[in-house]
Task: structure prediction
Amino acid sequence: MGVHGVTTAVLDFEAELKAAAGKTLISIQNVSKAFGEAVAVRDFCLNIEKGEIFALLGGSGCGKSTLLRMLAGFEEPTSGAILLEGEDVSGITPHRRPFNMMFQSYALFPHMTVAGNIAFGLKQESLPKREIEQRVDELLALVHMEPYRNRKPHQLSGGQRQRVALARSLAKRPQLLLLDEPMGALDKKLRSQMQLEVVDILKQVGVTCVMVTHDQEEAMTMADRIGIMNQGELVQVGTPHDIYEYPNSRYTAEFVGSVNLFEGRVEQEEPDAVLIRSPQLQQLIHVDHGITGPGHQQVAVALRPEKVLLSKVRPEKAYNWAAGTIADIAYMGGHSVYHVQLDSGMRVLAVRSNIERREVRYRLHDPVFIQWNADSGVVLE
Amino acid sequence: MLAITQRLPQPRNWVTAIPFFWLLLFFMVPFAIVLQISFAESEIAIPPYSSIVSIEDEMLSFNLNLGNFLMLLEDDLYLVAYLSSLKIALVSTLICLLIGYPMAYAIARAEPRVRNVLLMLVVLPSWTSFLIRVYAWIGILKNNGLLNNLLIWLGVTDEPIHMLHSDIAVYVGIVYAYLPFMILPLYANLLKLDNSLLEAAADLGAGSLRTFFSVTLPQTKAGIIAGAMLVFIPVVGEFVIPELLGSPSTLMIGKVLWQEFFNNRDWPVAAAVAIVMLSLLLIPITLFNRYQLKEMEAR
Amino acid sequence: MAKRFSFSTAVMVLGLVFLYLPMLIMVIYSFNESRLVTVWGGFSTKWYLELLRDEQLLAAIWMSLRIAFMSATMAVVLGTLAAFVMVRFGRFRGHTLFGGMITAPLVMPEVITGLSLLLLFVSMGQMIGFPTDRGMTTVWIAHTTFCTAYVAVVVNARLREMDISIEEAAMDLGAPPVKVFFVIILPIILPALLSGWLLAFTLSLDDLVIASFVSGPGSTTLPMVVFSSVRLGVSPKINALATLIILTVSLFVFIAWWFARRVEQRAQQQLDPPEQPAGASG
Result:
C-alpha cells in the first residue's frame, strides 16, 4: 500500500472515531459528596462520551468508589448533578437506573446458577421467557461460558466468576456499565489476560463504560481515557499516552509510572525552549517546549526512567547530562532498572532493555554518565 | 454504606417497629409493672395485691408501700439468700472457666474437621433437656446412688457419703448445666485469635506458659467476660438446680422468689425480691450487653 | 507448646466424659427391670410402655410441641427482623434500647422473666381484658419473647458475613427492595433461619420456669409434668423419657451434620472441574 493510501485510511478512522465519540452520554456537573464532616468527592466535573471506556484512577480513599456509587445510584450527591443525555438522574433509585455495575467481589447470587444470575436482570423486566433464554444464550456465548450455564457460582474459578459477572451486568444492555476494580479479585497472571479479554467484549458490545481502579497498568491497558483522582478531586484527564507522557502535575507524574523529578529554577526562557538550573545537577536542563508563567519560577522537571540513557563516555553537549555511579541494579528480566547516584547525592532511575543476552555492560559501582534528549523532560509547576 | 432498606423510609420504620414494640411490650414494660407491684400490699383477692393508685374524695393518691423492701432488710433470710446466690454463682463461674477454657482451647486448636465434631459434642447436651440433665445427677449422687455404690465397692468408704441435697450437689449441677455456655464464647474468641501471634511469641523465645499468659489470655478477654456473664447472671437467679439438688437450707434467691410467689402467694414481696435481684445484676447485664452488641454490630 | 496442648486435650476429654456420662447412665437405667433406679434388675422395656400409657404426660408432650412450634415460628419472624435492623439499619433513635432488648433476654434469670410477664398479663387482663386467662397464648407470647433474642443472634451472625454488594447487585439489576429481600436475602440466610428455628423450638420445649409462671390450668407443658414427678424422686419412667429425648436430638443433629457434610463434599468435587470449556456441558 502506498503512502497516500495509509494517510486516507488513518483520516477515515479518525473521522469515524470522532463521529462516534463526540457525543456526550454522561455529564457529571460539579458533583460533591460529603459523609458528615468528611468530603469524599469535591466539585467534580467530567463528561463521559458514548462508547468510550473511561477509567478513574487513584489511590484508596481518593473518592473514586464514591463517585462510581453515585453513578449507580447507591449514593446521592450532596450537591451537583449527574446528567444522562441531558437529563438529571438524581432521585432515580438504582433499580430504575439504566446503568449496571460489575462489583469488585462480583456479588454473584450464590443460590442461583450461572444462567439464573445472568437472567436475573431480564426477569425484572418481565420479558417473555423465550426472549430471556435467547439473550442468556447470547451472553454465555459472548463470555465463552456456555458449558457452565448450570453451575453454581461456588463451582467456578475466579476468572469464570468474572465472566459471569460481566455477562450479568451486560444482560440488560445498560446505557452505562460501571466496573468496580474489575480485576481486583484475580491473581496477577490471570489479570493481564482478562484485561484484554474484557476490553474485547466491551468493544464488541459497544457499551459505554466507567471503571474504577487503583492499578495504573489496568487503567492504561483497558481505558480509552483516564481520569486521575486525588483527595476527591479530578487532577488530570487524558488518554493513557497523554497522562504518561504529559503529566500536568507532580501528583500525576509520580502516581502513574515512576519518574525522576529535578527541582530547579528557570534560568533562561525562549518561545520554544527553556533552560532550567537544578541544584541536583551540574549541567543545565534544556527542555524544548515553552512554558507559561513568570520567569525565575520554581519548577520541577519530570523525566521518565526509560528516557534516561546510560553511557560510559562523557556526553559532548552542554545540557542534559550528569555523572554518577551505579548504586543499585534491579534485574527484571526483560529490562533492568539502574539506580544511578549522582555527585549531588540524588538518585536517578534509568531503565534499559536487556536486548543482549549475555553481555552485562554496567555493573555495580561503575562510574557512568546519564543523558537525555531535550524533548524527554516535562516541566511541572 | 447504604443498604437497600435505608432508601425507603416507610418499610424501614415498619421493619424496625414490629420487633421493637414486641420486645418493648413483653420485655421492658413488665419490669415497670414489677416495680409498681413491689410497692403494693398483699391482699387476699384476685389478683392478690392492692392497687397503688386510688381515687378517694376526688383526689388521685399514690400509696407507695415500702414494707416489702423493709421486710427484705429485716428478715435475715433474704440477705443470706442474696449473698449465697452471689457466692454460688461466682464460685461456679470460676469452676466453669477453669474447665471450659482448656476445653475451648483444645477444640479451637484441633483440625477443622475434628473441631466441628467436638463443638457439636459440647453443644449437643444443651439441646436435650436441662431439667432431665439435672435430674440425672439425683440418681448418681443419692445416698444409695451410683457414685456411693462405686465408692463403697472400691473400699474408699464404708458408709454412703451424703452428697445429694447439699451445696456440693448444687455446684456439680450448675457446672454441669452451664459449662457449654462458658465454652461457646471462649471458643469463638480463641478461633479468631491469630495463630501467627502465638508463633511470633514462641519465635521471640517466650515459653509456652509465658505465651499463654502474655498473649493468649489478654486476647481472649472478651470471650472470658461473655462466658462468665452467660454463666453468672442466670445462675444468680437459678431455681431448678437448688430445688432438685440442694438441701432445704441451700438458700438461693431464685428459690426464695419462687416460694414467695407459689407457696406464700405474696406477689408484692416476690416482686420486691425480683427488683432487688435485678438491680444487683444491672452491672453484669450491662457488661454482657456491651460485649454482645459489639459482637453483633462488628462488620 | 506440645505440653500445654496435651494438658488442654486431657481436660477436654475429661470434660466430655463429664458431660456425657450422666446421660449415658440414664439411658442404661431406662432399660432396668427394677423400680429401684440404682439396682440393676435385668433388661426391660416396660418403662417405655408405661410412658406410652401415661395420658397426662402424652397430653403435656402434645401441648409442649404445639407451643414450641408456634413460638419458634413467631420468634424466627421477629428475630430475623431484629437482626436485619441491627446489621443493616445503622443507628436510629432508640437504637441502644433496641440492642439491650435483644441481648438482655439471653442472660435474664428465668424467675424474673417469668414473674414479670405474669404480672404484665394480669395487669393487661385487668386493664384491657386481654389475655382473659392464662394458657397457651400467654406461654406462646412468653416463649416467643425470649426465643426472639436467640434467633436474632443466630441470624445476625449470618447476615454479617453476607456480602452487601449482593443486595446492591440485585437492586442494580432492577429488583425493588422488597423483592431483593424475598428473592435474594431470604434464600441466602435460609440455613440460619432453620437453625434459629430449631434452637427456638428446643428452648421452648425445655422451659420450665417461665411456663410455670405464665401457664394456666389447661396448658401444662412437658417440663412441668416432669418437674412435679422428679420432685417426688427418681422414676425409671423419666429415664425412659430422657432416653427418647436424647435419641431424638442426637438423630436430628446427626442428620443435619450428615447433610451439611454431603453438600460440602459435593461442592468440593465440583470445584475442580476439567478446565476445557468445550466438551460435555456441566
Q: What stands out?
A: The CA atoms of residues 71 and 269 of chain B lie 8 Å apart. The first strand of chain B starts at residue 53 and ends at 56. The domain at 68-297 of chain B is CATH 1.10.3720.10 (MetI-like fold).
